[in-house]
Amino acid sequence: MIRKAQELKREVIKGLRGGQGEVEIVHLLEADKNEFNGKGKLFAKFTLKPGVSIGWHQHSGDFEAYYILGGRGLVNDNGREAPVQAGDMVLTRNGEYHSIVNNGAEDLVFIALILLA
Fold first, then answer.
1. In this structure, is residue 76 part of a structural domain?
2. Which has fewest Cβ within 10 Å: 5, 21, 102, 115?
3. Mean per-residue pLDDT for 85-99?
4. Using one digit for the tens of pLDDT, what is the confidence trace for 55-65?
5. pLDDT-based confidence at residue 31 (cuts at 50, 70, 90)
6. Residue 105 has what DSSP assignment?
7. In which domain, by residue range, is 28 found?
8. Does 110 map to a domain?
């Protein structure tokens, strides 16, 4: 299967998980098309403009990885804040909490993958 860039599902979500601003999401795989074979929920590219965030939330029954492609941000990893930039990876395991904010001057772009625990 090949899906051209213009065919990818795109959405903008305001206040994602209680965060600030609008998060742009480009879905690389789609759960509603059974593209995870029941093993995952999300594989997408996220873009957060400066000041935009995804709010603090817990993963229950799944886990999430972020791979930072560009920009800078601040991740709250179970109550511990850490800066992230291109090349960094964040893993939030089943039962853990996290949030992310773009505290830089350029877009924060990352790949997110959520798989079932």
1. yes
2. 5
3. 98
4. 999 999 999 99
5. very high
6. S
7. 10-116
8. yes
Q: Cβ(117)–Cβ(64) under 8 Å?
A: no
Contact 48, 108 (CB under 8 A): yes
Residue with tokens 């929920």: 41
Report the Cα–Cα distance between both ends of the chain, in Å, rounded: 26
Total tally of structural domains belonging to the chain: 1
Q: Which two tokens stand for residue 11?
A: 């959405």
DSSP state for residue 14 in the 8-state scheme: E
DSSP assignment of 56-88 equals EEE-SSEEEEEEEEESEEEEEETTEEEEEETT-
pLDDT at site 25: 98
Stretch 102-117: mean pLDDT, rounded? 98
- 25 with 46: CB under 8 angstroms? yes
Q: How far is CA 37 from the centre of its chain?
A: 20
> What is the C-alpha separation between 102 and 49, in angstroms, rounded?
7
Read off the pLDDT of each residue in 8-31 and give the average, rounded to a whole number: 98
